[in-house]
Design goal:
Keywords: DNA-binding, Transcription, Transcription regulation. InterPro entries: LysR_HTH_N (IPR000847), LysR_subst-bd (IPR005119), WH-like_DNA-bd_sf (IPR036388), WH_DNA-bd_sf (IPR036390). Belongs to the LysR transcriptional regulatory family. The protein is α/β, with parallel strands linked by helices. It folds into three domains: 84 residues, Winged helix-like DNA-binding domain superfamily/Winged helix DNA-binding domain (Arc Repressor Mutant, subunit A, Orthogonal Bundle), CATH 1.10.10.10; 87 residues, D-Maltodextrin-Binding Protein, domain 2 (3-Layer(aba) Sandwich); 99 residues, D-Maltodextrin-Binding Protein, domain 2 (3-Layer(aba) Sandwich), CATH 3.40.190.10. The chain is built from eleven helices and twelve strands. The strands form three sheets. A five-stranded mixed sheet has the order 4-3-5-12-6, sandwiched between helices. A five-stranded mixed sheet has the order 9-8-10-7-11, covered by helices on one side. Helix 9 links the parallel strand 8 and strand 9. The protein starts with a helix and ends in a 12-residue tail after the last helix.
Length: 303
């Protein structure tokens, strides 16, 4: 059975006239009639009653007509959807992000993408950098927005979207609030709240190295995941922490002070699996890259 036979049958079932039905599907009547006969023989049931005056559907024909219409509608929908997916106009994109990544223009970029590509579902999960890279590599995520590592990036490609300088966040009643800037020597004497190394090992290590280059060992009092958690501990007087400058996290009870020395910044990258990337994900990433005015992405390799 071929799809064209279903289309022929639907035409005659709706026209109830072989001549008009054949004209409707742009085929001569003799081969049209032969196709309908072959369809009935293949099914093993008479679908049409015909005589010299009229054509009508049998009970089997009425049922088959309903099913044939449904089959063709589903087929047309599948063809259309797959075509749109191939162009990146339909489907879904599974996105991972670190909290700091959303503390930027990224939400606006995603909103703009969804406005122009309403048929694409953007599924978002908040994850640490390590978890994102692992899931991108396994195919559980299409795209990640996170810091990247010096090592362990095999099979992944990335492009830097933006960078944020670190400042020291202290409670509003801290003595440091009287200062315009701080040295690492001063900071090393304070109880420091850090983000877990497991989530951002390279950034964690670079911060520690900034201290060690000056013969300093910071007093790490607590570790916390996420900017909001760090801000809550700082405002409670539990310690001080390095936070990205211009952060939109709640600053109630917090003062941000620049660091004098050259200090590691936080670079946020868009990351994907360079060997396995859907067309929908590619279109999503291209739109995000355009929004951040970064260089054109080269897929199947690192930009």
């Amino acid at each position: 059975m071929e799809l064209r036979q279903l289309r022929y049958f639907i035409a005659v079932a709706e026209e109830l006239h072989f001549g008009r039905a054949a004209h409707r599907v742009h085929i001569a009547q003799p081969p049209f009639s032969q196709q309908i006969k072959s369809l009935e023989e293949e099914i093993g049931a008479k679908l049409l009653e015909r005589n010299s005056r009229k054509v009508r559907l049998t009970e089997e024909g009425r049922y088959f007509y309903e099913q044939a219409v449904s089959i063709l509608e589903q087929t047309d929908l599948a063809v259309s959807t797959v075509g749109r997916m191939a162009k990146g106009e339909s489907g879904s994109v599974k996105v991972g992000f670190m909290e700091i990544a959303m503390d930027s223009l990224l939400p606006e970029a995603i909103r703009a993408f969804r406005h122009k590509h309403s048929d694409v579902s953007v599924l978002i999960s908040q994850l640490g950098a390590s978890a994102q890279l692992e899931r991108i590599r396994s195919g559980e995520l299409d795209v990640g927005f996170s810091t990247v590592f010096m090592h362990g990036m095999e099979g992944l490609a990335s492009i830097r979207l933006f960078s944020k300088k670190h400042v020291l966040a202290v409670p509003d009643d801290h003595i440091f609030t009287r200062k315009k800037s701080l040295s690492l020597e001063e900071i090393a004497k304070e109880k420091l709240i850090m983000f877990p190394r497991a989530g951002q090992p390279d950034l964690h290590d670079s911060i520690m190295q900034a201290f060690s280059k000056r013969g300093l060992v910071p007093i790490i009092s607590q570790e916390v995941s996420g900017l909001s958690g760090a801000a809550a501990l700082i405002s409670s007087g539990m310690g001080v922490a390095f936070l990205p400058d211009n952060s939109h996290v709640s600053r109630k009870g917090i003062t941000l002070i620049p660091v004098i020395e050259e200090f590691p910044s936080m670079d946020i990258f868009m990351v994907w699996n360079k060997d396995s990337c859907s067309n929908t994900a590619k279109v999503f990433m291209e739109r995000v890259a355009d929004y951040f005015s970064v260089s054109k992405i080269i897929f199947n390799g690192t930009s």
